[in-house]
Design goal:
Elements: E1 4-6, H1 17-23, E2 28-30
Parallel strand pairs: 1-2
């Protein structure tokens, strides 16, 4: 299962779980709503 994260970049880079997952190729970061694929959205 692919993990896609809508990322805005306003978090602390050292503590951001989304960036950490992307660094280890476990998630794909998307900066815009258009680039984010459709699917389940969790908050």
């Amino acid at each position: 299962m692919d993990l896609h994260v809508r990322y805005e970049g306003d978090d602390d880079p050292d503590k951001c779980t989304a960036r950490k997952l992307a660094r280890f190729d476990l998630a794909t970061l998307h900066r815009s709503d258009r680039a984010t694929p459709y699917g389940v959205v969790l908050n």
